[in-house]
Amino acid sequence: MAGHSQFKNIMHRKGRQDAQKSKLFGKLAREITVAAKLGTPDPNMNPRLRAAVIAARQENMPKDNIERAIKKALGSDGENYDEIRYEGYGPGGVAVIVEALTDNRNRAASDIRSFFTKSGGNLGETGSVSFMFDRTGIIEYDRSVASDDAVLDAAIEAGADDVISSESGHEIYASTESYRDVAKALEAKFGEPRKAALIWKPQNTVSVDDETGEKLLKLMDLLNEHDDVQNVYANFEVSDALMAKMGG
């Protein structure tokens, strides 16, 4: 249960790049509403809603906004959003998965396809790249919550699959089946995590040169800035120098 978090520099870029709080709050609210509509409006009984609320709190989204998003799911006049997963290849043949919540499937597909095309990549069929990723649960804690050994012991006891501890914090991975129970057990021991969600984790990552990396990071930014896009995952690594140059 150890190793290097190979795709961390890409995963965390979104939060640093998205300075437009209102747009970010809009995306968070949309996920809260959809999660509440698909399950119960009680975060303690609805793992997806719980994850969405935690994400909103981490971004300092006001409590009123969170409650309003949940109430919106209970009304009959709220918008209906479709959940869509897009898969494709970016520059350098890098695999990319895009998760979207949209009220206009045609608009979303057209925009996302154009982003891929302009970057030198191409959008594929569903399933064209997801086989290169594992669908898994992740629970994250700040470095200060406990020692590496304490987190590792707690994770093993809870039934986690893997733990990666680094300067940026502790990442605990669990299967989709055990994720909810693992998250509950760890929260009882360490308190609310900074993140708890189901993600697409690349099985392997590929290193790209700075020229290709710059094109890929620009594609990531274009996708993340789109109103309909909730999450973007990719299986590439770039140099620290490029991350610094791009403001990552």
Automatic annotation (TrEMBL):
InterPro entries from the UniProt entry: Integrase-like_N (IPR017856), TACO1_YebC-like_2nd/3rd_dom (IPR048300), TACO1_YebC_N (IPR049083), Transcrip_reg_TACO1-like (IPR002876), Transcrip_reg_TACO1-like_dom3 (IPR026564), YebC-like (IPR029072)
Domain TACO1/YebC-like N-terminal: 5-75
Superkingdom field: Bacteria
GO molecular function ontology, one term from the record: DNA binding
Protein's UniProt keywords contain Phosphoprotein: no
Single biological process term from Gene Ontology: regulation of DNA-templated transcription
Region feature (Disordered): 1-21
One Gene Ontology CC term in the entry: cytosol
SUPFAM superfamilies in UniProt: YebC-like
Coiled-coil ranges from the UniProt annotation: none
Residues in TACO1/YebC-like second and third domain copies: 81-236
Protein localization: Cytoplasm
Keyword set, alphabetical order: Cytoplasm, DNA-binding, Transcription, Transcription regulation
Cited PANTHER family: TRANSCRIPTIONAL REGULATORY PROTEIN YEBC-RELATED, TRANSLATIONAL ACTIVATOR OF CYTOCHROME C OXIDASE 1
NCBIfam families hit by this protein: PRK00110.1, PRK12378.1, YebC/PmpR family DNA-binding transcriptional regulator
Family the entry assigns: Belongs to the TACO1 family.
Name of this protein: Probable transcriptional regulatory protein AXW67_39030
Biological source species: Bradyrhizobium neotropicale
Highest classification ranks of the organism: Bacteria, Pseudomonadati, Pseudomonadota, Alphaproteobacteria, Hyphomicrobiales
